[in-house]
Specification:
Elements: H1 3-11, H2 56-60, H3 66-70, H4 94-99, E1 106-109, E2 115-117, H5 125-133, E3 137-140, E4 148-150, E5 155-157
Antiparallel strand pairs: 1-2, 1-3, 3-4, 4-5
Length: about 190
């Protein structure tokens, strides 16, 4: 997806989860607004004044605006480590479903289709999967989000259209799965 396409998609889609959060997804307030006072390591600016790409958790938790993140320069599409014809492993985090855990958001391995929980979730299974399997590229498995992330470079990147489904079922709650999310879950995430 090009920068212009991403910008238009986000600006033109008021229901996009990338732009808006539902009431139960509001993070604790952060002083200073998007990108203010952030170091380069936190997705702010480099010493040269150029914008450092924001990570998926920065995008999710308001550490940068949706337009800033969407217009961040992305690497071009790569076919190494991406298998567009591989279906997702299911509709929820494989390990959380096996252990009775819960997740905040879901990520899909672009190589094997493994569905894991995001780095803001208690168990961070998507990152663990990438580290153990050496599958470095993930994409969002959330409705309205169409981004890829490369763990090797810590950068967003463009990617091909993957075989459906491209997100979890719309009736699946966030966080999920239903029945496993503890009261006060907002205090348990990073």
């Amino acid at each position: 997806m090009s920068r212009i396409t991403a910008q238009n998609r986000i600006a033109g889609n008021p229901s996009s989860r990338t732009v808006q959060r539902s009431a139960n997804e509001v993070p604790p307030s952060r002083p200073g607004g998007p990108m203010t006072g952030r170091s380069a390591a936190e997705g702010g600016t480099t010493e040269a004044g150029t914008r450092k790409p924001a990570s998926p958790s920065q995008l999710r938790w308001g550490r940068c605006s949706a337009i800033e993140c969407a217009t961040t320069e992305r690497r071009p599409v790569t076919t190494a480590f991406i298998s567009p014809s591989v279906a997702p492993s299911g509709t929820g985090c494989v390990e959380c479903l096996e252990t009775g855990g819960w997740w905040l958001h879901l990520r899909r391995c672009a190589e094997c289709g493994h569905i894991g929980c995001c780095d803001n979730s208690p168990s961070r299974h998507a990152s663990a999967h990438a580290a153990t399997t050496k599958h470095p590229i993930i994409c969002s498995f959330e409705p309205g989000e169409e981004w890829f992330w490369d763990y090797r470079s810590n950068e967003f990147m463009d990617g091909p259209v993957l075989v459906p489904p491209r997100h979890h079922p719309l009736d699946q709650p966030v966080p999920g799965p239903a029945g496993n999310v503890p009261a006060g879950w907002q205090n348990l995430i990073s």
